[in-house]
Amino acid sequence: MPGGKQQHHDSQVEGRIVASYGRRYLVELPDTTVLDCVTRGKRGDVACGDRVSVARSAPGQGVIEAIAPRMTLLYRSDAYRQKLIAANVTQIIIVVAAVPTFSEDLVNRCLIAAEYGGMKALIALNKSDLPESAAALSSLEFYRALGYRVRALSARRDVQPLCTCLENEVSALVGQSGMGKSTIINRLVPGAAARVAEVSAALDSGRHTTTYARLYHLNAT
Ligand SMILES: Nc1nc2c(ncn2[C@@H]2O[C@H](COP(=O)(O)OP(=O)(O)OP(=O)(O)O)[C@@H](O)[C@H]2O)c(=O)[nH]1
Ligand SMILES: [Mg+2]
């Protein structure tokens, strides 16, 4: 096909990926316009938070041509593949709750990912309104002793305990299904309308409701 990178160069714009849904990405431009973008070919090495150059392809649409060097990269991997979660995050917030039971092993893995990737880490014990939370909070004392910040909150009631920790940071909420990440987002970002689902009591787990990454701006208030 005629018209390679060179020809498009003049119409390229810089932006930031604010959402990744499979192979589709939303790129926000400095003037807050959002373009619906794809990558060239099957490249899947783009993450929410990436600074990118985009060639406009149609009104409201673009093709991601280049990714700027990242400050940090959060990803998950197993022996077979790697999945990028978020780029240029300065801090990860590990969301846990007493119900469903949270996995200490996952918390440890998240802390290792943060340390390895040069991101700060904070543990948020959500659902502090539940009676089971007291025991969960004392089980987290260990992390406090190691120097990690631990904050208890009930997203259903008030997310204020988290707010000061969010100032001047790009934070990623991570944690098992059902811990309340989307509930926290909805409280922090009015209008975010992240889907929230009941947890399964039978399985003592969430239902993997949120399956995409999204970047939100917080207003300094
Ligand atoms: N009691 C109580 N329940 C909460 C609180 N925050 C969230 N929940 C409930 O926990 C359940 C799971 O919340 P979600 O926000 O969907 O959890 P999530 O972490 O986004 O889950 P995934 O998207 O599956 O990863 C829902 O039934 C919420 O209403 C809280 O502070 N207290
Ligand atoms: Mg969710």
Describe the structure concisely for a colleague.
The protein has helices at 5-8, 104-117, 133-139, 141-145, 160-166, 181-188; strands spanning 12-21, 24-28, 34-39, 51-58, 61-67, 73-77, 82-87, 91-97, 120-126, 149-152, 171-174, 213-214. The chain is an alpha/beta fold.
| Sequence stretches where pLDDT stays below 50 over 5 or more residues | 3-8
Instruction: Please report which band the strand proportion falls in: under 5%, 5-15%, 15-25%, 25-35%, 35-45% or over 45%.
Output: 25-35%
User: What is the rounded Rg?
Assistant: 19 Å
Global structural class: alpha/beta
Give the helices and strands as they follow along the chain: HEEEEEEEEHEHHEHEHE
Helix content: 10-25%
| Widest beta sheet: strand line-up | 1-2-3-5-4
Count of individual helical segments: 6
Total domain count: 2
User: At the first level of CATH, what is the class of the largest domain?
Assistant: Alpha Beta
The dominant shape is elongated
- Compute the separation of the termini in Å: 50 Å
Averaging pLDDT over every residue, what do you get? 91
CATH fold name of the largest domain: Rossmann fold
Which small-molecule species are bound to the chains here?
Answer: guanosine-5'-triphosphate, magnesium ion
Query: What does the main sheet amount to?
Result: 5 strands, mixed, barrel
CATH architecture of the largest domain: 3-Layer(aba) Sandwich
User: What is the strand tally?
Assistant: 12
- CATH superfamily caption of the largest domain: P-loop containing nucleotide triphosphate hydrolases
General description of the model:
The protein has 2 domains: 12-67, OB fold (Dihydrolipoamide Acetyltransferase, E2P), CATH 2.40.50.140; 89-212, P-loop containing nucleotide triphosphate hydrolases (Rossmann fold, 3-Layer(aba) Sandwich), CATH 3.40.50.300. With 221 residues, the chain is of the alpha/beta class. It is built from 6 helices and 12 strands. The chain binds guanosine-5'-triphosphate (GTP) and magnesium ion. Residues 181-182, 194, 209-210 line the site of magnesium ion.
